Amino acid sequence: MAFSIALIIILGLSADYCFRRAKLPGLVGMLIMGMLVGPYMLDLMSPEMMNVSGDFRKIALVVILLRAGFELRRDTLNRVGRAALIMSCVPAVFEMVGILLVAPHWLHITRLEALILGAILSAVSPAVVVPLMIGFMDRGRGAKKGIPTLVLGASSVDDVFVIVLFTVFLGMYGAQETHLLAKLAEIPVSIVLGIVVGLIPGYVLYRLFQRYDWRPPKRTLFVLGVAILLTWLEKTCEPWVPVASLLGVMAIGFVILEKSEPVAHIISQKLKKLWVFAELLLFVLVGAQVNVHVAWKAGLAGTMVILVGLVFRSVGTYLSLLGTGFDWREKLFCVVAYVPKATVQAAIGAVPLAAGVASGEVILAVAVLSILLTAPLGAIGIMALGERILDHGKHSVYRFKELREKLGLPHVGERVLNKKHGTVWKIIEQKEMWLARSTPSGLTNHDIHFTPAIYLRFWKEHNGRPGTGKTTSYQYSPEDPSFGDHWEILYDW
Question: Which of these, 50, 78, 352, 413, could form a disulfide with 357 (CB 3.0-4.6 Å)?
Fold first, then answer.
């Protein structure tokens, strides 16, 4: 298995680099590399790695959803909440209807089998969508109207809705006694319980971090461990009650962000670094699950079914955005952002075949083909349209993130070393502010522009105890030298 991990790291990073150089999303290169080295093509991955692939992919998904939670601000959620709720179900229903209309004739399957196929295909992939939305949020794109937050939240609930419907249709095929209303009631129950099981540990973690002055790496690992535990809880409770644990994972970050923004930013930054490795695991292993030979069997008919489903889905997505105040270009971006499929299709595409569905092989082939068609094209479309369409407000709060990364600034609670004097200080206060600057625009006139700045207050360590000596403060703007020129952030435990 060690050899497989080495392959994932070396080849995944190489593919990511090459695709980024070609102005394409790096995750597309990782997916393709995963398909090449996977068991269905070159077969370079060890059987042990493929056996634990599901667990690794889940952990990687937890990392990116935690990052998503630490970006979910209450005011933004209030703005997009209604649209996110509608987008979590309406586009999926439209896609199922489109597939139901054409699949029985083109693929020669029954209507119930078409519904099962529709439920599999109508799930958007959080593995593809969430990292791209986080990337836009990190750069402040779409911040004014909260478009990345809308897509991020809706795509997470979309999977819950679709998987419940898939369970209903599969149960109907097996002639099992399925109470439709009871199954549909599992959707809101699953969502509410998922959020609750995330809010509670999120608040407990916040209190824990307030009481004990743990260092950033320890805090981050503890949060990650609790988040992974939630996914185990979902599996354990599955026979009795549904729990959408991935929503709970995001809720953990949301609570900590609401209660202590400095702590949330510190953990988010550490997760961003951890995501470099988790991203490789996620996309290379998702690609390794794709059986190209099976997809080939779907042929032209399968491709047409997928395209018709996407047309219906696009109509549903557009209708969901009526009344949001988005212009047609922003709505187009949301439509494209709801195209990629990968995670759910790779996870449940083979379930009908294993359950004895007569057309299970056809369903699997179309599910795999949908990954090959929509994951790369959807990712490319999101990146291309996002850069051109999403707003970048002059006073976006995300410009402070750019400043922090550029200058390497610390967060509240972190300890820093003065390189010149060898003294240790602790950051006890920070403020984000806009500074008015004037620039000559002619012989006599001056234009006023605003630049972001971060105010930091330091407390000197005295007798081995941080925060007990004298204080000092500095103000950093884009014109200032890097923080690392004079200070070093201490990452001890």
Answer: 352
Tell me which residue of 346, 468, 62 sits closest to 225, measured CA to CA.
Answer: 62
CB 160 within 8 A of CB 247: yes
pLDDT (0 to 100) of residue 17: 92
The answer, yes or no, to whether residue 492 has pLDDT greater than 60, is no
Q: In what order do the strands lie in the sheet with 415-418?
A: 471-476, 446-460, 424-440, 415-418, 487-490
Model pLDDT for residues 61-100, shown as the tens digit of each residue:
888 888 888 878 777 777 777 888 899 889 999 999 999 9
Identify whether the C-beta of residue 306 lies closer than 8 Å to the C-beta of residue 373. yes
Q: pLDDT category, 179, cuts 50, 70, 90?
A: low
Neighbours of 468 (CB within 10 A): 12
Lowest mean pLDDT among 46-60, 310-324, 384-398: 384-398
How many angstroms separate the CA atoms of 187 and 244, rounded?
Answer: 9
Q: Look at residues 457, 447, 384 and name the one whose alpha carbon lies nearest to residue 425.
A: 457
CB-side neighbour CA atoms (13 Å) of 237: 17
Residue 263 tokens, joined: 């702590």
pTM of the model: 0.74
Q: Strand 424-440 to strand 487-490: parallel, antiparallel, or no bridges (unpaired)?
A: unpaired
Q: Are strands 415-418 and 471-476 parallel, antiparallel or unpaired?
A: unpaired
The pLDDT assigned to 464 comes to 54
Region 378-406: mean pLDDT is: 79
Cα 297 from Cα 363, distance rounded (Å): 10
Percent of the residues in the chain that have a pLDDT greater than 70, as a whole number:
91
Nearest by Cα to 235 from 30, 55, 464: 55
Sequence-distant (6+) residues with CB within 8 A of 219 are 209, 263, 266, 267, 270
Architecture of the domain made up of 2-389: Up-down Bundle (1.20)
Paired with 476 in beta bridges are 454
On the CB side of 409, how many CA atoms lie within 13 Å of its CA? 30
Q: How far is CA 226 from CA 26, 201, 216, 247, 292, in A?
A: 29, 8, 16, 13, 36
410 token code pair: 């610390």
User: Given pLDDT bands bounded at 50, 70 and 90, which one contains residue 445?
Assistant: low
Identify the DSSP state of 482.
P
The span from the CA of 189 to the CA of 185, in Å, is 6
Residues 20, 26 contacting (CB under 8 angstroms) = yes
Domain extent listing, the chain: 2-389, 398-490
